[in-house]
Amino acid sequence: MQTVYSTAGIAFDVQAVQIAIQSGPERHNIPAAYKAKIDKYLKVLQDEITKLERAQADAEQKLGLDEPIEDMKNRVAIMKARLTDESKKMQYIDEQQQNYAIQQRLRAKDLQSFQKSIATTATNFFSRYLQKQGFQGNLSIDQDAKTLDIQVIPKPGMESKNSKQDSGSLSGGERSFATLAFIMALCEEMLAPIRAMDEFNVFMDDINEKKSLQMLVGCATRKKCYQHLFIMPELDIKAVLPHNYKDLPHMKVIRLKPPRGPVEAGQQRMDMNEG
Fold it and tell me: Residue 131 falls within a domain, yes or no?
């Protein structure tokens, strides 16, 4: 461990002094003239140091500094290190932002492809289901304008009083069948585990009812991983369902008897039987 003492403004090392004494135990007399030159030189150095310290203090005072310049240099060095760290963080954030922008563009492109795929699939199945009725159909979907135009037209050479392309000109039964075809076309791209349809055969005649039920049963049989519920008035389903539908585990028919009980009681009861 080094021990340093200061005497009369001059610092000296104790160990160094001890080593010097051991090396030369006898002190040599220095000529007075040479010693005077050394003392004069030391005084000049001390005066220069004092002058510089005073000049530094005056400069700090003129600049209005609240702390020494050395302390300010240390703080500047610390701030530069922080600035370097923050610059690296900002560079990382910029890189991540660029990556996010690229990912956003890719996802937007995938979304457009997905929307186009859904529109194509729905249009194809809508046309296929309408062909069972003897009609042709088309779906015009504009994703940007968020509009949907449903077109239903008879097949060429087929006589019909409703020959316009507007679905509003169809009869009630034809419109119900077109609506059913549209819903079934949308279901081809849906992942909902439960699908229910209530009185889908409104305004349909017997022929259209059977065609509609055949389409629904065929779709439900083809997609057994989903549960389909069809609610409708009394209909002769034996002509539509397989003859052994009662033995099929994935198919069940439940018939509700007409409500019975006093109407004035405000509540009626419906019995449920499996058919």
Answer: no
